[in-house]
Design a protein that fits this description.
Layout (H helix, E strand, L loop, with lengths): L1 E6 L5 H11 L5 E8 L5 H8 L4 E3 L8 H14 L4 E4 L8 H6 L4 E5 L14 H10 L3 E8 L9 E8 L6 H24 L3 E4 L2 E4 L4
Parallel strand pairs: 1-2, 1-4, 2-3, 4-5
Antiparallel strand pairs: 5-6, 6-7, 8-9
Helix pairs in contact: 1-6, 5-6
The structure holds glycinamide ribonucleotide.
Length: 208
């Protein structure tokens, strides 16, 4: 059973899919807290509506970087979180937090890493870049967060075809459908303690 902290900046549809998987019994986890840098995010709204501790933490609430990190750390500790799922969190996780939760932070990315990742590659920018590149496939990646953007060990991927008439918006919609299925499944691998890491590769143990 994971005690999840979900970090999200926007709409929060991945947070909702995680919550749904938990309530359907498909993910052995509890959402201990939702943290957002955006006070108006759908994610915080969803958390409050569902009685989940909802924390707004940003450079506005805590301008001093040391305060910021120590508040993040203390909220995680206070709520007993043992795993962090980034679900549309558009900020870099401070390295002190990454080092405190080694291999216990995951991110979902709306493309097939290691392509179309890195700084500035988030949300619609990713889908635009995929279309501009002429790639015929795209997809979703769940990976472990390290101190560099989008380069940690890959836990799960699923691909879809790019269609001739795709726009960034149509691609985003199809990719999002996959995200909602893939992220809870990937988190369940951690809940069942089935992931070991070997360099950049992850090894998946068979189901118990
Ligand atoms: C998702 O498509 C997620 O993959 C992307 O932001 C969206 C958040 O949607 N994340 C990134 O681009 C991270 N680099 P949501 O708020 O509805 O879950």
């Amino acid at each position: 059973m994971l005690r999840l902290a979900v970090f999200a900046s926007g709409r929060g549809s991945n947070l909702e899919s995680i919550a749904r998987a938990i309530s359907h019994g498909d993910l052995d986890a509890e959402i201990a807290l939702v943290l957002s840098n955006n006070s108006a995010s759908g994610a915080l709204h969803f958390a409050r509506e569902h009685g989940i501790p909802a924390i707004h933490l940003s450079t506005k609430t805590n301008p001093d970087p040391r305060d910021f990190v120590s508040r993040m750390k203390s909220e995680l500790k206070h709520h007993g979180a043992d795993f962090i799922a980034l679900a549309g969190y558009m900020k870099k996780v401070p390295s002190e937090i990454v080092n405190t939760y080694p291999n216990r932070i995951t991110n979902i990315h709306p493309a097939l890493l290691p392509a179309f990742g890195g700084k500035g590659m988030y949300g619609m920018n990713v889908h635009k870049a995929v279309l501009e590149s002429g790639a015929r496939v795209t997809g979703v990646t769940v990976h472990i967060v390290t101190n560099d953007y989008d380069v940690g060990p890959i836990v799960a991927q699923e691909c879809i075809a790019v269609r001739d008439d795709d726009t960034p918006e149509s691609l985003a919609l199809r990719v999002l459908e996959i995200e909602h299925r893939l992220y809870p499944r990937a988190l369940q691998l951690f809940a069942q303690d089935r992931i070991t890491i070997n360099g950049l590769r992850t090894i998946h143990q068979s189901p118990p």
